[in-house]
Amino acid sequence: MAVNQGGLSLVELMVAIAIASFIALAGTTLYVTTVGAGKELYDEASQTEQVFAITSALSGDIRRAGYRGNPTALSTYLVTTRGSTGVAGDEGDYPAVEFSTTGAPTAAGNTSDCVLVQYLRKHTCASSDEAITACDTNTDGTVDTVGAVVSVHHRFGYRLVSGVMEGVAVIHPSEYDSAPSTDSACNATGASSGWSALTVANSLYVDEFEVEVLGQTIIDADNNCPLGVNGASPCDSHASYSNPLGLDCGNTVSCRVQRLYKITVCAYPGSTDGQCVPAAGGSQPENQIYVEVLASPRNDALIAKAY
Protein backbone atom coordinates (compact mmCIF):
# COMPACT_ATOMS: atom_id res chain seq x y z
CA MET A 1 0.00 0.00 0.00
CA ALA A 2 1.42 3.38 -1.02
CA VAL A 3 2.10 5.89 1.79
CA ASN A 4 2.53 9.68 1.27
CA GLN A 5 5.57 10.94 3.20
CA GLY A 6 5.93 14.74 3.94
CA GLY A 7 9.18 16.72 4.37
CA LEU A 8 11.92 18.29 2.31
CA SER A 9 14.03 16.71 -0.28
CA LEU A 10 17.80 16.93 0.05
CA VAL A 11 17.92 19.62 -2.62
CA GLU A 12 15.25 21.70 -0.91
CA LEU A 13 17.04 21.39 2.42
CA MET A 14 20.33 22.54 0.91
CA VAL A 15 18.64 25.52 -0.75
CA ALA A 16 16.99 26.49 2.57
CA ILE A 17 20.32 26.24 4.42
CA ALA A 18 22.03 28.39 1.79
CA ILE A 19 19.34 31.08 2.02
CA ALA A 20 19.49 31.08 5.83
CA SER A 21 23.28 31.36 5.68
CA PHE A 22 23.09 34.39 3.41
CA ILE A 23 20.56 36.04 5.73
CA ALA A 24 22.74 35.33 8.80
CA LEU A 25 25.82 36.63 6.98
CA ALA A 26 24.02 39.82 5.97
CA GLY A 27 22.77 40.33 9.51
CA THR A 28 26.23 39.77 10.99
CA THR A 29 27.80 42.15 8.48
CA LEU A 30 25.19 44.80 9.28
CA TYR A 31 25.79 44.35 13.01
CA VAL A 32 29.57 44.58 12.70
CA THR A 33 29.31 47.64 10.43
CA THR A 34 26.85 49.37 12.75
CA VAL A 35 28.94 48.67 15.85
CA GLY A 36 32.11 49.80 14.08
CA ALA A 37 30.48 53.04 12.88
CA GLY A 38 29.08 53.65 16.36
CA LYS A 39 32.49 53.16 17.96
CA GLU A 40 34.09 55.51 15.44
CA LEU A 41 31.48 58.18 16.18
CA TYR A 42 31.98 57.66 19.92
CA ASP A 43 35.77 57.98 19.59
CA GLU A 44 35.46 61.17 17.53
CA ALA A 45 32.99 62.66 20.03
CA SER A 46 35.27 61.71 22.94
CA GLN A 47 38.31 63.29 21.27
CA THR A 48 36.40 66.48 20.47
CA GLU A 49 35.03 66.64 24.01
CA GLN A 50 38.54 66.35 25.50
CA VAL A 51 39.79 69.32 23.46
CA PHE A 52 36.78 71.55 24.03
CA ALA A 53 36.68 70.76 27.75
CA ILE A 54 40.24 72.09 28.06
CA THR A 55 39.70 75.26 26.00
CA SER A 56 36.42 75.97 27.79
CA ALA A 57 37.96 75.54 31.25
CA LEU A 58 41.06 77.60 30.42
CA SER A 59 39.12 80.45 28.79
CA GLY A 60 36.85 80.56 31.85
CA ASP A 61 39.84 80.69 34.18
CA ILE A 62 41.44 83.49 32.14
CA ARG A 63 38.22 85.53 32.34
CA ARG A 64 38.33 85.17 36.14
CA ALA A 65 42.10 85.83 36.32
CA GLY A 66 43.15 88.54 38.73
CA TYR A 67 39.95 88.58 40.78
CA ARG A 68 40.85 89.89 44.27
CA GLY A 69 37.53 89.83 46.06
CA ASN A 70 36.18 93.17 47.28
CA PRO A 71 39.00 95.15 48.91
CA THR A 72 37.71 98.19 50.76
CA ALA A 73 40.72 100.39 50.03
CA LEU A 74 43.26 100.80 47.23
CA SER A 75 46.11 100.03 49.63
CA THR A 76 44.48 96.67 50.43
CA TYR A 77 44.14 95.91 46.73
CA LEU A 78 47.76 96.81 46.04
CA VAL A 79 48.95 94.37 48.71
CA THR A 80 47.42 91.55 46.66
CA THR A 81 48.84 92.67 43.32
CA ARG A 82 52.42 93.79 43.77
CA GLY A 83 55.36 92.47 45.70
CA SER A 84 57.50 94.36 48.19
CA THR A 85 60.43 94.97 45.84
CA GLY A 86 59.12 98.14 44.22
CA VAL A 87 60.49 96.99 40.88
CA ALA A 88 58.99 98.78 37.88
CA GLY A 89 56.43 96.59 36.19
CA ASP A 90 56.09 94.23 39.15
CA GLU A 91 52.69 92.49 39.07
CA GLY A 92 53.10 91.05 42.54
CA ASP A 93 53.02 87.69 44.25
CA TYR A 94 49.80 86.68 42.49
CA PRO A 95 50.05 87.67 38.81
CA ALA A 96 46.71 87.12 37.08
CA VAL A 97 48.34 85.04 34.33
CA GLU A 98 51.85 83.57 34.23
CA PHE A 99 53.65 82.04 31.25
CA SER A 100 55.83 79.01 31.89
CA THR A 101 58.62 79.92 34.34
CA THR A 102 59.03 83.49 33.06
CA GLY A 103 56.22 85.10 35.06
CA ALA A 104 53.57 87.49 33.80
CA PRO A 105 53.69 88.22 30.06
CA THR A 106 54.83 91.75 29.29
CA ALA A 107 54.01 92.36 25.63
CA ALA A 108 51.79 91.35 22.73
CA GLY A 109 53.23 88.33 20.95
CA ASN A 110 54.44 86.58 24.12
CA THR A 111 53.55 82.85 23.93
CA SER A 112 53.80 79.76 26.12
CA ASP A 113 52.85 76.06 26.18
CA CYS A 114 52.29 76.27 29.94
CA VAL A 115 50.02 78.84 31.56
CA LEU A 116 49.21 79.45 35.24
CA VAL A 117 46.11 81.45 36.19
CA GLN A 118 45.51 82.97 39.64
CA TYR A 119 42.40 84.38 41.29
CA LEU A 120 40.75 84.58 44.70
CA ARG A 121 38.32 81.86 45.85
CA LYS A 122 36.68 80.82 49.08
CA HIS A 123 38.31 78.03 51.09
CA THR A 124 36.95 76.19 54.13
CA CYS A 125 39.71 75.64 56.69
CA ALA A 126 40.25 72.02 57.71
CA SER A 127 42.20 70.83 60.75
CA SER A 128 45.12 69.97 58.44
CA ASP A 129 45.37 73.50 56.99
CA GLU A 130 47.72 74.92 59.63
CA ALA A 131 50.28 75.74 56.91
CA ILE A 132 47.83 78.08 55.13
CA THR A 133 48.40 81.56 56.54
CA ALA A 134 44.74 82.61 56.30
CA CYS A 135 43.70 79.56 58.36
CA ASP A 136 46.45 79.98 60.99
CA THR A 137 46.85 83.74 61.26
CA ASN A 138 49.09 83.65 64.33
CA THR A 139 51.27 80.87 62.82
CA ASP A 140 51.21 78.79 66.00
CA GLY A 141 50.75 75.52 64.09
CA THR A 142 47.03 75.24 64.88
CA VAL A 143 44.11 76.26 62.67
CA ASP A 144 42.30 79.23 64.17
CA THR A 145 38.79 77.90 63.54
CA VAL A 146 38.05 74.61 61.77
CA GLY A 147 35.27 75.22 59.27
CA ALA A 148 36.02 78.91 58.91
CA VAL A 149 35.63 80.22 55.36
CA VAL A 150 38.54 82.36 54.16
CA SER A 151 39.52 83.94 50.83
CA VAL A 152 42.77 82.65 49.36
CA HIS A 153 44.36 82.80 45.92
CA HIS A 154 44.11 79.60 43.89
CA ARG A 155 46.29 78.53 40.97
CA PHE A 156 44.99 76.73 37.89
CA GLY A 157 47.55 75.43 35.41
CA TYR A 158 47.54 73.93 31.92
CA ARG A 159 50.56 72.50 30.09
CA LEU A 160 51.48 70.19 27.21
CA VAL A 161 53.83 67.26 27.93
CA SER A 162 54.69 64.66 25.24
CA GLY A 163 51.34 64.86 23.45
CA VAL A 164 49.25 64.88 26.64
CA MET A 165 47.54 67.90 28.18
CA GLU A 166 48.03 68.15 31.93
CA GLY A 167 46.33 70.32 34.53
CA VAL A 168 46.73 71.37 38.15
CA ALA A 169 44.39 73.10 40.60
CA VAL A 170 45.81 74.09 44.00
CA ILE A 171 45.89 76.85 46.57
CA HIS A 172 48.62 79.29 45.47
CA PRO A 173 52.03 78.45 47.01
CA SER A 174 52.39 82.01 48.34
CA GLU A 175 49.37 81.44 50.61
CA TYR A 176 51.42 78.99 52.71
CA ASP A 177 53.79 79.73 55.60
CA SER A 178 56.37 77.49 53.92
CA ALA A 179 56.70 75.73 50.58
CA PRO A 180 53.76 73.32 50.10
CA SER A 181 54.39 69.63 49.46
CA THR A 182 52.59 69.79 46.10
CA ASP A 183 54.61 71.39 43.29
CA SER A 184 52.42 73.30 40.82
CA ALA A 185 55.18 75.04 38.84
CA CYS A 186 55.31 74.60 35.07
CA ASN A 187 58.50 72.51 35.36
CA ALA A 188 57.23 70.27 38.19
CA THR A 189 58.07 66.56 37.87
CA GLY A 190 58.20 63.46 40.04
CA ALA A 191 56.22 62.45 43.10
CA SER A 192 55.79 66.03 44.35
CA SER A 193 54.19 67.22 41.10
CA GLY A 194 50.53 68.12 41.39
CA TRP A 195 49.94 67.85 37.63
CA SER A 196 47.66 65.14 36.21
CA ALA A 197 46.57 64.15 32.71
CA LEU A 198 43.55 65.88 31.15
CA THR A 199 43.59 63.89 27.89
CA VAL A 200 43.80 60.14 27.20
CA ALA A 201 47.13 59.29 25.57
CA ASN A 202 45.95 56.28 23.55
CA SER A 203 42.89 58.18 22.32
CA LEU A 204 44.21 61.62 21.38
CA TYR A 205 47.60 63.16 20.60
CA VAL A 206 47.81 66.88 21.38
CA ASP A 207 50.35 68.21 18.89
CA GLU A 208 50.06 71.93 19.65
CA PHE A 209 49.01 73.94 22.71
CA GLU A 210 49.80 77.63 22.87
CA VAL A 211 48.55 80.65 24.77
CA GLU A 212 49.48 84.00 23.21
CA VAL A 213 49.04 87.60 24.28
CA LEU A 214 47.20 88.78 21.20
CA GLY A 215 47.17 92.39 22.34
CA GLN A 216 47.39 94.59 25.40
CA THR A 217 46.44 98.10 26.42
CA ILE A 218 48.23 99.86 29.27
CA ILE A 219 46.45 102.79 30.90
CA ASP A 220 47.63 105.39 33.41
CA ALA A 221 45.58 104.42 36.46
CA ASP A 222 45.46 108.02 37.71
CA ASN A 223 43.81 109.65 34.70
CA ASN A 224 42.88 106.77 32.33
CA CYS A 225 45.29 107.89 29.61
CA PRO A 226 46.51 105.04 27.36
CA LEU A 227 50.30 104.80 27.35
CA GLY A 228 51.91 104.90 23.94
CA VAL A 229 49.33 107.38 22.65
CA ASN A 230 50.00 111.11 22.81
CA GLY A 231 46.43 112.34 22.92
CA ALA A 232 44.50 115.39 23.99
CA SER A 233 44.76 116.91 27.46
CA PRO A 234 45.37 115.54 30.04
CA CYS A 235 46.93 112.72 28.02
CA ASP A 236 49.60 114.99 26.56
CA SER A 237 51.30 116.03 29.79
CA HIS A 238 53.53 113.03 30.45
CA ALA A 239 56.41 111.82 28.32
CA SER A 240 55.46 108.17 28.71
CA TYR A 241 52.22 108.67 26.76
CA SER A 242 54.23 108.78 23.55
CA ASN A 243 56.90 106.29 24.67
CA PRO A 244 56.74 102.50 24.20
CA LEU A 245 53.94 100.83 26.10
CA GLY A 246 54.64 100.22 29.75
CA LEU A 247 57.94 102.11 29.85
CA ASP A 248 57.19 103.85 33.16
CA CYS A 249 54.66 101.45 34.70
CA GLY A 250 55.52 100.96 38.36
CA ASN A 251 58.26 103.56 38.19
CA THR A 252 56.61 106.95 37.75
CA VAL A 253 53.11 105.85 36.75
CA SER A 254 50.53 103.48 38.28
CA CYS A 255 49.02 101.41 35.48
CA ARG A 256 46.03 99.28 34.59
CA VAL A 257 46.84 96.56 32.06
CA GLN A 258 44.22 94.97 29.81
CA ARG A 259 45.30 91.86 27.87
CA LEU A 260 43.64 89.71 25.22
CA TYR A 261 44.75 86.06 25.05
CA LYS A 262 44.43 83.53 22.23
CA ILE A 263 44.29 79.82 23.11
CA THR A 264 45.27 77.42 20.33
CA VAL A 265 44.96 73.62 20.47
CA CYS A 266 45.59 71.14 17.65
CA ALA A 267 45.13 67.41 18.24
CA TYR A 268 44.39 64.17 16.39
CA PRO A 269 44.20 60.38 16.92
CA GLY A 270 47.57 58.65 16.86
CA SER A 271 50.96 59.11 18.45
CA THR A 272 53.11 60.89 15.84
CA ASP A 273 54.46 64.34 16.63
CA GLY A 274 54.31 67.33 14.28
CA GLN A 275 51.40 66.28 12.05
CA CYS A 276 49.05 69.23 12.62
CA VAL A 277 48.21 71.29 9.53
CA PRO A 278 45.68 73.94 10.65
CA ALA A 279 45.16 75.22 7.10
CA ALA A 280 43.96 71.77 5.98
CA GLY A 281 40.61 72.30 7.69
CA GLY A 282 40.69 69.05 9.64
CA SER A 283 41.67 66.78 6.75
CA GLN A 284 45.40 66.56 7.49
CA PRO A 285 45.91 64.47 9.43
CA GLU A 286 42.58 62.68 9.29
CA ASN A 287 40.16 63.75 12.05
CA GLN A 288 42.36 66.66 13.11
CA ILE A 289 40.77 68.90 15.77
CA TYR A 290 41.91 72.53 15.61
CA VAL A 291 40.52 75.15 18.01
CA GLU A 292 41.24 78.84 18.56
CA VAL A 293 39.57 80.67 21.47
CA LEU A 294 39.94 84.30 22.58
CA ALA A 295 39.64 85.29 26.24
CA SER A 296 40.28 88.45 28.24
CA PRO A 297 40.33 88.85 32.06
CA ARG A 298 37.42 90.81 33.48
CA ASN A 299 39.84 92.33 35.98
CA ASP A 300 42.65 94.64 34.85
CA ALA A 301 46.13 93.98 36.24
CA LEU A 302 47.19 96.88 38.45
CA ILE A 303 50.84 97.92 38.73
CA ALA A 304 51.42 100.45 41.50
CA LYS A 305 53.83 103.35 41.32
CA ALA A 306 56.91 102.86 43.52
CA TYR A 307 56.68 105.85 45.85
Q: TL;DR?
A:
By secondary structure, the chain is an alpha+beta fold. It is 21% helix and 26% strand.
Unreliable runs? 82-86
Report Rg: 30 Å
Instruction: Classify the helix fraction into a percent range.
Output: 10-25%
Order of helices and strands: HHEEEEEEEEEE
Q: How many separate domains?
A: 1
Helix/strand/pairing category: alpha+beta
Major sheet characteristics: 5 strands, antiparallel
State the strand order across the main sheet. 1-3-4-5-6
End-to-end span in angstroms?
129 Å
Annotation, overall tally of beta strands: 10
> Total helix count?
2
Summed over residues and divided by their number, the pLDDT gives a mean of 81
Shape annotation: elongated
**How much of the polypeptide forms β-strand, as a percent range?**
25-35%
Give descriptors for this structure:
307 residues; alpha+beta; 2 helices; 10 strands; 21% helix; elongated
SSE topology:
Elements: H1 10-64, H2 74-81, E1 97-99, E2 111-112, E3 114-124, E4 149-161, E5 164-171, E6 196-197, E7 205-220, E8 255-268, E9 289-295, E10 301-303
Antiparallel strand pairs: 1-3, 2-7, 3-4, 4-5, 5-6, 7-8, 8-9, 8-10
Describe this structure in words.
By secondary structure, this protein is α+β, with helices and mostly antiparallel strands. It has one domain. The protein is built from two helices and ten strands, in the order ααββββββββββ. It has helices at residues 10-64, 74-81, and strands at 97-99, 111-112, 114-124, 149-161, 164-171, 196-197, 205-220, 255-268, 289-295, 301-303. The strands form two sheets. A five-stranded antiparallel sheet has the order 1-3-4-5-6, covered by helices on one side. Strands 2, 7, 8, 9 and 10 form a five-stranded antiparallel sheet that branches. The longest helix has 55 residues, at 10-64. The termini are far apart. Mean pLDDT is 81; it is low at 82-86.
